[in-house]
Specification:
The structure is a single chain. By secondary structure, the chain is an alpha/beta fold. Helix content is about 35%, strand content about 15%. The chain has a single domain, classed as Alkaline Phosphatase, subunit A, CATH 3.40.720. It is globular, with a radius of gyration of 21 Å.
Length: about 475
C-alpha cells in the first residue's frame, strides 16, 4: 500500500531531455552563464526526490518507453517495439478503479499503433492533426519554414495579444503541439474526480528545435534573435558543417525549447492548484532519453549508448514526503512500480523495475543494481530507421553502475569500457588494454549482457513487422525517422 498521502499522480515526460538541461542537475556541467533556466522543474526538485543517476533503457523513444509505461525491456515480449500484450501502467491503474488520461504531443512512436493507448480512459496522441491538410503536412517536414513563419508572424501575434489585453504566453505557432496537450490535460483535471493518473508527453526539446521567439530571447539575454534559429536550421538541414557558432546556436535553441516546456509544466501545476488537488497529487518528471551536441561526433540521438543520450532527469515530488537526493543509479523502468505504489495499487509480477517509494518517503537507498540499455544500429550510425525487431541492425547493449559504463556491440563482437568518475564524457575507451580492475569489470558486465540478449532473442525473433499508416509515417518522417 502507499506510504504517502497521494490520491493522484501526474507523470510528465519530456522527449530528448538531457539531465544537465535541468538546473538541479547542471552544476557539474554548466557555467553560471550557461545554466539552464528551468524554475518550475527546479522547484519540483527542491520539494521532491531527485535521482541523480537515472538512466534510460534506450537512446530514443521506442527503446525507452516500454520501460517507462510498462516496466518491460524493449523487444522482451513480442520482439517488436511498443507495449502490445504487456500489462501497462495505465491498464494496471484502470483495473484498480483509477481514472486515466494520456496526452502525447504527436510523437508517432507513442500511439495506439504501438499499444500505448491500452488502459487509458482518455487518450490523444495528436498525430492525425499533423497530416490533416497540405499546409500542416508541409510544415511538419520543414522546420526551417516554421522558423521563418515564427519570425514573420511573431510581431503580429504580439500586437494582437496586446490589443486583447492578454499576456504573450501564446502568440506563437504551436509547432510542438504543446498547447494541444496542455488544453487536454487541463480539461482532464477539471472534469475528473480522484483518484486519477495523468500522463503528458512534451516534444519541444526534440529536434528540430523551434521554440517561441520570447524563450529564445529569454535564455540568451535578448542577444539571440529568431534569424539565428533560421541560420542554424538551414545549415543543419542542408547538411553543412556544424561549426562552433552553429553548435552554440543549436544549444541555445534547445535551452529555449526546454524553457518553453518548463513554463507549460508550471501552468499544469497551477491547474492542479486551482482545482484543489495539488496537495494530494504526486508529480513525477522524467526525460525519456537525452540529446547529443557532438560529444561523440553527431547531433540529435543517433543509435549510441553514451551518457549524453542515456542519462535522464528523474524527479518524484510526492505529498507528505520530505524529498532529497539519491546517489544510487536507477533505471526508468522504476516509474510504473513507483507510481502504482504511490497510489496503493499492486504491481504486476511481469514488471521488471522496483518501486522507489521508500527512497522518496523514508530516504532508503535503492538496490543500486546495474542499469541495462539497448539500441539497434544500421549500416551507418547516422541512419535512424524505424526498427521493428532485433534483426533490423546490430544490437548494442550497455551496462552501467556508479563508476563504469560498458558497451557491447553484440553482433559485431566489439566492446567499450569507460570510467565515468575520471572520464565523465566517455572519451577514453579502456577495453583495449584493461588493467586487472578493468578486466574484472568486463568479466562482471559481460554475462549481464549475455543474459539480457538471450532473454530478448528467445522471446522475440518472430515479431510481425507491420506497416504504419500515412499520417503516422509522415509524423515519424518529420521527426527524422524513415
Amino acid at each position: 500500500m502507499s506510504r504517502t498521502e497521494t490520491s493522484n499522480v501526474v507523470l510528465v515526460t519530456v522527449d530528448s531531455l538531457r539531465a544537465d538541461a535541468v538546473g538541479t542537475y547542471a552544476d557539474e556541467y554548466r557555467s553560471d552563464d550557461d545554466r539552464p533556466q528551468t524554475p518550475v522543474m527546479d522547484s519540483l526538485a527542491d520539494d521532491g526526490t531527485v535521482f541523480e543517476r537515472a538512466f534510460a533503457t534506450g537512446n530514443w523513444t521506442p527503446f525507452s518507453f516500454p520501460s517507462m509505461l510498462a516496466s518491460r525491456p524493449v523487444f522482451a515480449d513480442t520482439g517488436r517495439i511498443g507495449v502490445d500484450g504487456v500489462p501497462t501502467l495505465a491498464a494496471t491503474l484502470s483495473d484498480a478503479g483509477v481514472a486515466t488520461g494520456g496526452f502525447n504531443a504527436a510523437n508517432g512512436f507513442l500511439t495506439s499503433h504501438w499499444g500505448y493507448d491500452e488502459g487509458f480512459d482518455e487518450f490523444e496522441p495528436f498525430v492525425a492533426s499533423v497530416g490533416s491538410n497540405l499546409y500542416s503536412r508541409y510544415l511538419a517536414t520543414h522546420p526551417t519554414v516554421e522558423a521563418w513563419i515564427q519570425l514573420a508572424a511573431s510581431p503580429l501575434r504580439r500586437a494582437e495579444s496586446w490589443i486583447r489585453g492578454e499576456t504573450d504566453d501564446r502568440p506563437f505557432l504551436d509547432t510542438s503541439r504543446m498547447f494541444d496537450v496542455e488544453h487536454a490535460a487541463t480539461e482532464f483535471i477539471e472534469e475528473t474526480d480522484a483518484p486519477f493518473f495523468l500522463w503528458v508527453h512534451y516534444m519541444d526539446a526534440h529536434t528540430p528545435y523551434v521554440p517561441a521567439p520570447r524563450y529564445i530571447r529569454e535564455v540568451s539575454s535578448n542577444l539571440f534573435g529568431t534569424h539565428r534559429m533560421i541560420h542554424a536550421h538551414t545549415r543543419t538541414g542542408l547538411g553543412w558543417e556544424v561549426g562552433e557558432r552553429t553548435l552554440a546556436d543549436l544549444r541555445t535553441l534547445y535551452r529555449a525549447a526546454v524553457r518553453q516546456v518548463d513554463d507549460s509544466i508550471g501552468r499544469l501545476l497551477e491547474t492542479l492548484s486551482e482545482n484543489g488537488v495539488r496537495d494530494d497529487t504526486a508529480v513525477v518528471l522524467a526525460g525519456d532519453h537525452g540529446e547529443e551536441f557532438q560529444e561523440h561526433g553527431h547531433l540529435a540521438h543517433y543509435p549510441k549508448l553514451y551518457d549524453e543520450l542515456i542519462r535522464a532527469p528523474f524527479v518524484v515530488d510526492a505529498p507528505g514526503a520530505e524529498g532529497g537526493r539519491v546517489a544510487e543509479q536507477v533505471g526508468l523502468d522504476a516509474i510504473p512500480p513507483t507510481v502504482a505504489d504511490l497510489m496503493g495499487v499492486d504491481e504486476p509480477a511481469a514488471w521488471q523495475g522496483e518501486s522507489l517509494v521508500s527512497s522518496v518517503t523514508d530516504g532508503d537507498a535503492p538496490a543500486d543494481d546495474p542499469v541495462i540499455s539497448v539500441t539497434v544500429r544500421g549500416d551507418e550510425v547516422t541512419s535512424q530507421p524505424i526498427p521493428r525487431g532485433l534483426d533490423d541492425g546490430d544490437l548494442l547493449v550497455s551496462v552501467r553502475d556508479r563508476d563504469w559504463t560498458y558497451i557491447q556491440n553484440v553482433d559485431a563482437g566489439t566492446h567499450e569500457l569507460y570510467h565515468r568518475p575520471s572520464d565523465p564524457t566517455q572519451r577514453t575507451d579502456r577495453s583495449a588494454d584493461p588493467s586487472p580492475e578493468e578486466r574484472r569489470v568486463i568479466e562482471r558486465f559481460g554475462p549481464l549482457v549475455d543474459d539480457h540478449v538471450r532473454a530478448l532473442r528467445n522471446r522475440g525473433r518472430d515479431a510481425a513487422t507491420g506497416d504504419v499508416n500515412e499520417d503516422l509515417g509522415r509524423r515519424l518522417e518529420a521527426l527524422g525517422y524513415k
